[in-house]
Specification:
Largest sheet: 5 strands, mixed
Order of helices and strands: HEEHEHEEHEEEHE
Helix content: 55-70%
Distance between the termini: 142 Å
Number of helices: 5
Strand order of the largest sheet: 4-5-3-8-9
Strand content: 15-25%
Structural class: alpha+beta
Length: 232
């Protein structure tokens, strides 16, 4: 009996090189899928960050609008200009019925532009926040402290004559110079000029402020870091 040995070659898909290519293709497919998922996840993360940023901006804007509604200058925590004038109008109406002594003060932070130039606007904001905290701490609840504009503050000392007003300003000036304003690892020096005027029920609110402003102008013209009193 003759025995024949037959050798059947494997099908093409059973060949080693085909299997290797198939494995490689599967690995590439898996790697592509992983990369796609990573890119998709990164895209979702960026979208989430953008939404968080938008929500943060909207929240800050809403807080600023709320501060305006309640009469607060958000950065300093003081009254805003509108609320400051409202309280001055209340004082004016009160003094028409009940005469008394009050002092109107305009306070201007010296060389504030140099602070913004040297430390940036964030450094200037740090100074304004610190000044607002100091004024809220040092003044009485009945007094008025408002952000008049920029680095200028409007103060009103209730039931205070000129001598009492001068003593209050001297105390504020010392506290300002001793106040540490730390920003970005540096200490920012703070000083201010003051114009002081006594209220007069025979005059308007605008005249009160104009006299305080003229006194402030003299303080700034004569060297800054000082107080000038309206001679009225």
């Amino acid at each position: 009996i003759t025995r024949l040995q037959l050798e059947v070659p494997p099908a093409w898909y059973q060949r080693l090189w085909v299997r290797l290519l198939a494995g490689l293709g599967l690995l590439l497919l898996l790697a592509g899928a992983v990369q796609w998922r990573l890119r998709a996840a990164r895209g979702r993360e960026l979208q989430l960050q953008a939404r968080v940023m938008e929500s943060t901006i909207e929240l800050r804007q809403a807080n600023a609008r709320l501060a305006q509604l309640v009469g607060e200058a958000g950065l300093t925590g003081l009254n805003n200009r509108r609320r400051g004038f409202e309280r001055l109008a209340e004082l004016y109406n009160w003094r028409q019925r009940m005469p008394g002594n009050d002092c109107v003060v305009l306070m201007d932070l010296d060389h504030f532009k140099q602070v913004n130039d040297g430390y940036g606007h964030l450094g200037g904001d740090a100074v304004l926040r610190a000044v607002g905290q100091l004024l809220r701490r040092e003044l009485r609840a009945v007094d008025i402290a408002a952000r008049y504009g920029g680095e200028e503050m409007l103060l009103v000392f209730m039931d205070a004559d000129l001598a009492q007003g001068q003593r209050t300003i001297e105390r504020l000036a010392i506290a300002l110079r001793q106040m540490p304003v730390l920003f970005d690892g540096q200490q920012i020096a703070v000083d201010a000029s003051f114009g002081l005027a006594r209220t007069d029920p025979a005059q308007s609110i605008e005249q009160w402020i104009a006299r305080a402003d003229a006194a402030l102008y003299r303080a700034k013209q004569t060297g800054r870091g000082r107080l000038c009193v309206d001679p009225h």
